[in-house]
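Sequence design from tokenized structure. All designs in this work follow the same two-part layout: the structure record, then the generated sequence. An example of the structure record is given first.
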């Protein structure tokens, strides 16, 4: 089949795009409001875009609490979502009123960050402490506003649970990072293979 996204002529019951760009890593992002109230939500429009400096991005459909808080306070944390936390990840996507705490809703303990104010997810094996750089509203190719706000942040501190470091390497198959596929589907990594680059 072939279709043109702008025409929406895929003929399927649901837009297949997110099943085609899959799996997507999940940034499980914690912030605080300007009043200091914690907030937590998953974002699968998420990735790193640079290494040294280490820069992450996430994209919000509209100005959700996470992006508002990140812009207002200049800080956010990307916690690693893992297979065993699938239910908690899902629960924290509940659209609570601003200022209500998704950590509490999902029964998740908070742990302090070292360098920034938002708490991290205590049980998550990895957390990236980030300082906000910029939030850019996407436009389409004709310059029309897309309604998606992409936030960039620099990672200034990284927590890794030592249990997942083996022979000097982070053991991905033990971490079992959770990712998002299309529709309501999730996937996780439980096997990896190493292929040296050609010289
Ligand atoms: C696995 C998963 C991934 C999600 N990814 C995104 C995303 O990339 N962008 C977005 O705007 N919403 C995404 N959502 C929905 C938000 O998590 C949801 O709207 C949440 O209530 C936003 O919370 P906030 O207002 O506290 O930021 C996702 C939901 C789930 C379950």
């Amino acid at each position: 089949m072939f279709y043109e996204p702008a025409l929406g002529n895929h003929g399927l019951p649901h837009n297949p795009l997110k099943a085609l760009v899959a799996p997507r890593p999940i940034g499980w992002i914690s912030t605080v409001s300007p009043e200091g109230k914690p907030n937590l939500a998953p974002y699968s429009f998420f990735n790193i875009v640079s290494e040294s400096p280490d820069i992450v991005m996430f994209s919000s459909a509209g100005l959700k609490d996470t992006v508002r808080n990140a812009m207002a306070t200049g800080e956010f944390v990307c916690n690693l979502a893992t297979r065993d936390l699938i239910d908690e990840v899902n629960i924290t996507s509940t659209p609570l009123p601003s200022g209500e705490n998704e950590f509490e809703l999902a029964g998740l303990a908070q742990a302090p960050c070292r360098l920034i104010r938002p708490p991290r997810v205590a049980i998550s094996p990895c957390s990236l402490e980030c300082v906000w750089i910029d939030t850019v509203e996407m436009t389409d190719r004709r310059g029309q506003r897309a309604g998606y706000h992409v936030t960039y942040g620099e990672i200034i501190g990284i927590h890794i649970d030592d249990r997942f470091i083996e022979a000097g390497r982070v053991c991905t198959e033990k971490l079992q990072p959770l990712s998002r596929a299309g529709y309501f589907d999730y996937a996780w990594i439980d096997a990896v293979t190493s292929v040296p680059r050609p010289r």
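The chain has a mean pLDDT of 97. We note this feature because it recurs in several other targets discussed in the main text.
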